Amino acid sequence: MQDNHYPVTGVGLGLRRDHMEEVEAQASLPVDFMEVAPENWIRVGGDLGKRFRALTERYAFVSHGLSLSLGGPSPLDEDLIQDIRRFLDTHGILCYSEHLSYCSVDGHLYDLMPIPFTEQAVHHVARRIRRTQELLGRRIAIENVSYYAAPGKEMQEIDFINAVLEEADCDLLLDLNNIYVNAVNHRYDAEAFLRALPKERIAYFHIAGHYQEDVDLIVDTHGADIIDPVWALLDKAYAYFGVVPTLLERDFNIPPLDELLGEVGTIRHYQRHWGRPLATRAAHV
Asked: Strand 202-207 and strand 246-248: pairing?
């Protein structure tokens, strides 16, 4: 059954402005929560701001940051953090997360760069996460990211993530597609990686699609349908962790809302299966 320590429950979907009119027109979507990037909505006023406020009053919301650059060398943008805190408070946002990466060095890089897997980097990013939590007045979740090279690597990715979580005392936004992408690109066992993560720190899951560049190279795009091996990893994650709130991400090549809701329905299918008592579970997908 679903654990009540999570900030939200059920199945979520990222709110896209292209779909706002359709979302507003429906009395109720078959989703339990929505997600937005605060940078896209901070200081948005006028009619659009009112429409967004109306949606945050109808649905539970979580927020996934894009530009805090937790692992970066530049000083933390504490003004942005204060803006985010006001945004979270104003709209009753139930969880804030950011990427375990960096995206700025004396200017924005417009990409998520991997933090070196070193002990020094653990201390650096953990210190910045603790400061962010202090300024926000709440715990945050960090997301495991996809990466294509690991310069300066001194420890395994799983050990790096677990060390940051422990030292920063923060939560984990677990992206299952990123585990699959990295497992293929860096040739490790995705299920073993999954089982090595601390279940008590998980806030919710992300699941998404990607682009298969070659048999041993995947590009994380969030721009395609979810493929069977990633669905299978979600199934294994529910078997191991229980029914964790799960959000469908789609950032590019965005299809009609009905198509996204079809994938939302698939997530709910898995959740219903693993939410049933053990004795009543039939053979599953």
From this structure: parallel
